[in-house]
Amino acid sequence: MTLESPPTVQQLLAFYLEAGVDCALTDEPVNRLSDPDLMPAAREAAPAQPVRTVPAAAPTIPSARAEPAAPEAAIQSAREAARTAPSLEALRALMETFDGCALKSTATRLVFADGNPQARIMFVGEAPGREEDLEGLPFVGRSGKLLDRMIAAIGLDRSSVYIANVIPWRPPGNRTPTPQETQICLPFIQRQIELVNPDVLVTLGNPSTQTLLSTREGIMKTRGRWFDYDTGTRQIRALATFHPAYLLRSPSYKRMAWLDLRAIAKALEQAKS
Ligand code: URA
Fold it and tell me: DSSP code of 228?
């Protein structure tokens, strides 16, 4: 039997990149296979240790590692925190200190928003990518450039619109956020929309549309359709359209996106009068 030659460093890096591993989490490498705390399965498989009994009232020793809160507790604490934020600045400040979402520990920084908080129109995407994570601003990469062109097509720019994401921390390797992560972040974007209070809300792509407009239908069915978004204090007109990253991959849908942009421009005109 012949052993295959070990992969070169380039081959290994290419493998990691393809698997979505495109950033280092810490400066030092960690051998997670040798850390029993990180290997619950190995711990379970280990021979049973004699059971030690402790007095019922013994104080619990806090874990050295900050554990993310259980999903239900994290969702609840995000709801309470978001509700108490009286302004966008306060919301940003409390999100900076919120530890309930594990994505925060792998992201470089919070990507809160870009644009004008007084804007009459707000665009919401899914989650920051690599460039956004590095710059701390939403939609600054390739799809952001296309979003800028879409916004320019209705006579606006970043100084007259407000842009944010459902998830404010980059998922590692740009993976899809889990439903739990989305539920934990949802109260924050909901409060952000309420505080910006735009006349028109535009959801970009399927995840943002399904999460914010509470629909299970896909973007092919929802795009171009008007929804009522209820902030709790007001109804806002909301339109779903394609995500610019999708339009980059499927340019033939730009024609439909153009129709959506015309509808948005018309709604802004109507809301003025
Ligand atoms: N895609 C998104 O959904 N949001 C960004 O900020 C960038 C890319």
Answer: E
Q: What span, in angstroms and rounded, lies between the C-alpha atoms of 71 and 185?
A: 11
Is 127 close to ligand 1, i.e. is its CB under 6 Å away?
A: yes
Q: Tell me the whole-structure pTM to 2 decimals.
A: 0.79
Token digits of residue 3: 């052993």
Pocket of ligand 1 contains residue 139 by CB under 6 Å: yes
Amino acid in the structure at residue 60: T
**Residue that is written with structure tokens 């306060």 in the block:** 90
Instruction: Tell me how crowded residue 154 is: count the other CB atoms within 10 A of its CB.
Output: 17
Q: What does the pLDDT look like over 142-195, one tens digit per residue?
A: 999 999 999 999 999 999 999 999 999 999 999 999 999 999 999 999 999 999
CA distance 22 to 16: 7
Q: Which atom of ligand 1 is nearest to the CA of 163?
A: 6
Say which CATH architecture domain 70-272 belongs to.
3-Layer(aba) Sandwich (3.40)
Domain coordinates in residue numbering, the chain? 70-272
171 lines ligand 1 (CB under 6 A): no
Nearest atom within ligand 1 for CA of residue 138 = 6
